[in-house]
Amino acid sequence: MPETENGESIHEETELDKVLKIKLKVVDRETGKSRYCSVMETKTWDWANPEYWRVVNGWQITSFRGLLNLLYLKAEKGCEEIEVLEAPRFTMLSGG
Predict the structure, then answer these.
(1) Rounded to an integer, what distance in angstroms lies between the CA atom of residue 52 and that of residue 86?
(2) Architecture of domain 15-93
(3) Nearest to 84 by CA among 13, 39, 9, 27
C-alpha cells in the first residue's frame, strides 16, 4: 500500500469501495431460502424481465444502476448488509 514519508497510508477508501463491500442477502419469497451474493454478481441478473421483482426496504429495484444508487445511499449510512427480496411479480402483489 502506498505510504507518505511519515509512513501514513495514502489509500483512502472510496465510496465505490464501500459499496462493493456491502453484503447482499438475497431472499427468494417463493421458497424462503436465502443466499449471499456480491454486488458485481447482480450485474448479470435479468433486469429486463418486468415479471420478476426485486425489492429493498420497500423500494422496487428495476435495474443494476438503480441498485447501485441505493447501495451508495446505504454505504453513506454505514450499512454493511442489505436484504434483497426477489419473486415473481404476482407473488409480491398478492402479499406473498
Answers:
(1) 7
(2) Roll (3.10)
(3) 27
Domain boundaries, the chain: 15-93
Q: pLDDT by residue (tens digit) across 34-47? A: 999 999 999 999 99
Inter-residue contact 71 to 82 (CB < 8 Å): yes
DSSP codes of every residue in 15-66 = HHHHHHH-EEEEEETTT--EEEE-TGGGGGS-TT-TTEEEEETTEEE-SHHH
DSSP 3-state of 24: strand
Q: How do residues 31-87 score in pLDDT, each as one tens digit?
A: 999 999 999 999 999 999 989 999 999 899 999 999 999 999 999 999 999 999 999
